[in-house]
Predict the 3D structure of the following.
Amino acid sequence: MNNFDTELKERTAYVEKIVYDYCPKEEGLQKIIIEAMNYSLKAGGKRLRPMLVLETLRLFGGDEKEAYPFMAAMEMIHTYSLVHDDLPAMDNDMYRRGKKTTHAVYGEDMGILAGDGLLNMAYETMSMAILKSKYPQRAALAMNILAYKAGIYGMIGGQTVDVINENKEKDIDTINFIHKLKTAALIEGAMMVGAILAGVDEQAVETVEEIATNVGIAFQIQDDILDVTGTLEELGKPVLSDEKNNKTTYVTLKGIDESKRLVEDYSEKAVNLLESLGGDSEFLKNLIIKLINRVK
Amino acid sequence: MNNFDTELKERTAYVEKIVYDYCPKEEGLQKIIIEAMNYSLKAGGKRLRPMLVLETLRLFGGDEKEAYPFMAAMEMIHTYSLVHDDLPAMDNDMYRRGKKTTHAVYGEDMGILAGDGLLNMAYETMSMAILKSKYPQRAALAMNILAYKAGIYGMIGGQTVDVINENKEKDIDTINFIHKLKTAALIEGAMMVGAILAGVDEQAVETVEEIATNVGIAFQIQDDILDVTGTLEELGKPVLSDEKNNKTTYVTLKGIDESKRLVEDYSEKAVNLLESLGGDSEFLKNLIIKLINRVK
């Protein structure tokens, strides 16, 4: 393990601990739903989005404590989207990251309610953060941006277009729309929240958004590539699921080599923009490169 | 139609117009999800919760414009809960208010996503309201209270206990828990939001919460009564659905007469508390009485 991998592992554990601090207590007559929510939240993952909130805030020298509730909220929103995506009426996945999905363990009704509970709790957490923040205006703006990126003009919009085009031939514009909204939007939200909480100006927030867009799209194309080249062991989910589902992806439209080249392009653009911001961006830069070139 | 009924009709139309002003435009590749959300929002109903936001704010002489986005958000949260409740994995209802339910028209996947979209948009709307409010602190507190009442310690908690006890014998404590959380919590949220946005003190907010609890429980017992005594025409949904689903309710446990007496008790308590607040509470009082003694 090189230095960056060791550092990443430590920082991931740190981020995870913060997220866990916001997990609700499993008690009351409604205990089962809280268990289902925590099961979903604690099922692992890269913790990429809360890490991007924190690392972007750090890049601009913000107050770390301001980020904590937003990091938890970010992961709750990401997790709810996975829980609902896995439902029988959606992707119908029984496994994710090598573990049973939430509805597979708790039933379909609890899967729906656990997702709702996580989404609602994200906003409960952020609204409490506004009340407690040293900079309530920043916190309110951060929440508003995240709500926009998570909603019908962001992630939910992307999920919609993904679902209605399932098993259909798609053109590259539709695929780009899905990648931009379904995947990039939350990454944009995460980095913008970090920047806004640190109190940077609009110009810097825009640059951060552009970095995140490039990271998000590269990340999703890499996902399409990994679906073809990965193994069950590496990914913790069935491979070739895209092919089996007759899904058009970057790889089926452009081929592996061109897709890999595009990942390089987006990646380079993100890194260049990041360096243009100044500050100590070493960790963020390595994180972006690692994410985009990941093998699982 | 007596004077109050005429007044109620006019004020309902006024409330509905405000809610409609916040409906998203049906455009973009993701248009279908926006149509599904608006279909759900525009499917009628009493508009009780946004009306309670507005009327409670009026009682305390608040600035009406402060209430508008919260009224819309309130109805979005109520509507998302109906859309998800109607799903096949939940109550599996194909009709509500005499109209096809959202998933019946748009499919189960869009039903899930439309509910998610409505819940998220509620918070997007409220977070924007905080940014635009003359009293951002009040608006942030109002949103935090509503998030609490809509979440696992409120409505979602109540739905959970309702779902896991379906087709089971329930004791009166469990039924009270469900009524308090599944139904009363959002009514509490609505009235508390109105009071908070008007800038009243904590004591008054607590009294308002107590009024709303009594209204909510009476409303729900009346719902159980109507399930036995109503007709399809009056209710716009199949009658005796509780009995068919082998559901324990106030009526099956306590009988119709005792249930009716309890509705009277809760109703009287709500009205007495309301009058203790002073101010022109005539319309709110009539609204509460009307709601509780409704025949549909």
